């Protein structure tokens, strides 16, 4: 039985606080979470449940340890969690939750009703001490499925998504929304533009076309793709970048410079570089800091629907 949620956190008077919710039906205190609905992704469910239970719209950050435990009749329940900051929201509560409490880690330690919740709390505290709790996401997207080159007589940059690709573009909307993406740069080729356009429309933002991300420009000036990544790292704002298969290794290797050999993020980027990303796939990099001080903290891959 899959479920997802998040540990909302903030700093108040230079002190870390986390949000716990109280359910009067069970008289328990825990993290905001809930069941994954049919057709939902884990991150979509986590963002939705946090909003429904706390009244706050979250921006998901680093992934936290999962909880897996047995329920009645021997069923296993898996809950996936993320750290998250509040993007917006009124804090109005629904009937299922009657209180949201912002607590210091020490206060939360004695408040929660389930020992298993200590795993997520400790991960948040450890990340705070390491300076890797506050991050911003950079999402690398490969364009969706498209009309084949053999079946297209017009210029290649005009080659559109096919029906499967259009569905993949729609599926990206809640994923990018869960990470609070506010800037999207893309190759102006039709298949890339159309992959991220549904999210841009839903979020009310303008796509930013960059010719340095096209296959044609990359073939002549491969350094331009890396410079686009460097600019995004300097801006340090939640962003997505959509490009083509030949360009992706340069993009991913530029991001790999923000981590070190032997760590999970380095290995994940190496794997994505060597094996390639699937059409319609999104690779989420959580980055702490900016520019020369940026550190890549985590990497998650969200496959196409």
TrEMBL record:
Pfam families: His_Phos_1, NUDIX
Keyword vocabulary terms for this entry: Hydrolase
An individual GO BP term: AMP biosynthetic process
GO molecular-function term, one example from the UniProt record: bis(5'-nucleosyl)-tetraphosphatase (asymmetrical) activity
Listed SUPFAM superfamilies: Nudix (SSF55811), Phosphoglycerate mutase-like (SSF53254)
Domain Nudix hydrolase: 1-125
InterPro entries: His_Pase_superF_clade-1, His_PPase_superfam, NUDIX_hydrolase-like_dom_sf, NUDIX_hydrolase_CS, NUDIX_hydrolase_dom, Nudix_hydrolase_domain
UniProt-listed PANTHER family: BIS(5'-NUCLEOSYL)-TETRAPHOSPHATASE [ASYMMETRICAL], DIADENOSINE 5,5-P1,P4-TETRAPHOSPHATE PYROPHOSPHOHYDROLASE MUTT
Listed name of the protein: NUDIX hydrolase
Source species: Flexivirga caeni
């Amino acid at each position: 039985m899959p479920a997802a949620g998040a540990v909302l956190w903030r700093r108040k008077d230079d002190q870390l606080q986390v949000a716990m919710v109280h359910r009067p039906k069970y008289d328990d205190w825990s993290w905001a979470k809930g069941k994954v609905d049919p057709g939902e992704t884990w991150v979509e469910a986590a963002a939705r449940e946090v909003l429904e239970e706390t009244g706050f719209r979250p921006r998901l950050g680093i992934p936290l340890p999962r909880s897996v435990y047995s329920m009645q009749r021997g069923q296993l329940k898996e809950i996936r969690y993320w750290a998250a900051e509040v993007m917006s929201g009124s804090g109005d509560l629904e009937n299922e939750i009657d209180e949201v409490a912002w607590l210091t880690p020490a206060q939360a330690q004695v408040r929660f009703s389930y020992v298993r919740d200590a795993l997520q709390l400790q991960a948040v505290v450890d990340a705070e001490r390491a300076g890797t709790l506050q991050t911003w996401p950079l999402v690398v997207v490969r364009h969706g499925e498209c009309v084949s080159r053999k079946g297209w007589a017009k210029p290649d940059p005009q080659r559109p998504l096919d029906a499967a690709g259009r569905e993949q573009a729609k599926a990206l909307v809640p994923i990018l929304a869960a990470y609070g993406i506010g800037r999207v740069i893309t190759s102006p080729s039709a298949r890339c533009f159309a992959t991220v356009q549904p999210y841009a429309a839903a979020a009310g933002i303008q796509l930013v076309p960059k010719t340095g991300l096209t296959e044609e420009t990359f073939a002549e000036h491969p350094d331009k793709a890396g410079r686009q990544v460097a600019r995004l790292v300097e801006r340090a704002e939640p962003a997505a970048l959509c490009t083509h298969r030949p360009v992706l290794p340069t993009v991913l290797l530029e991001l790999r410079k923000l981590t070190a050999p032997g760590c999970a993020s380095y290995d994940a980027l190496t794997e994505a570089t060597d094996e390639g990303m699937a059409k319609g796939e999104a690779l989420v990099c959580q980055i702490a800091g900016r520019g020369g001080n940026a550190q890549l903290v985590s990497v998650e891959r969200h496959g196409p629907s």
